[in-house]
Amino acid sequence: MTPQISSVLLRKIMQEARGSPNAEICGLLRGRGAVIRSAESTANCAADPSGFFEIDPSRLIAAYRQARQPNGLELLGYFHSHPAGSPDPSPRDAEHAVADGRLWLIATHDTARMWRAVSNGAVHGRFDPVAFDIVTGKRVTRSVASVRLLGAQKRWSLEFDHFPD
Ligand SMILES: [Zn+2]
């Protein structure tokens, strides 16, 4: 199933990434099935947050607990930023990722891509690139490969690239 995220959530993550040029931001993607309904930032507990991220373990535990509630959102994945890098997973990301099929959204100061943590992935043996759908109001942009954040503070817009057919 193709993951789906709203442009509002994407813009929020990307603005946060852009606003933190010296430390990686991170958080949880939660939702139902393939639909991401929430992107909550958490503290970055890494010893060196300029080059890595570690989601606050207490927030992870809370997310697992919530997922077991009757109407709780599932933990669909994680987001983090690469302030000075590319939106591709680093070797260190691969080292720390569990091949559990969860989504990894990675944002730079202006670009974001989505990945899935799998065994035998195309990137560092751990990640496959994932096309995703973006919902803007009632419009759905399908099979997006990457998103760029354009413009200045009050006029952010998103530009989409698609995977070649
Ligand atoms: Zn990373």
TrEMBL record:
<keyword id="KW-0378">Hydrolase</keyword>
<dbReference type="InterPro" id="IPR037518">
    <property type="entry name" value="MPN"/>
</dbReference>
<dbReference type="GO" id="GO:0008235">
    <property type="term" value="F:metalloexopeptidase activity"/>
</dbReference>
<dbReference type="GO" id="GO:0006508">
    <property type="term" value="P:proteolysis"/>
</dbReference>
<feature type="domain" description="MPN">
    <location>
        <begin position="3"/>
        <end position="138"/>
    </location>
</feature>
<protein>
    <submittedName>
        <fullName>M67 family metallopeptidase</fullName>
    </submittedName>
</protein>
<keyword id="KW-0645">Protease</keyword>
<dbReference type="InterPro" id="IPR028090">
    <property type="entry name" value="JAB_dom_prok"/>
</dbReference>
<dbReference type="GO" id="GO:0008270">
    <property type="term" value="F:zinc ion binding"/>
</dbReference>
<dbReference type="InterPro" id="IPR051929">
    <property type="entry name" value="VirAsm_ModProt"/>
</dbReference>
<keyword id="KW-0862">Zinc</keyword>
<dbReference type="Pfam" id="PF14464">
    <property type="entry name" value="Prok-JAB"/>
</dbReference>
<keyword id="KW-0482">Metalloprotease</keyword>
<keyword id="KW-0479">Metal-binding</keyword>
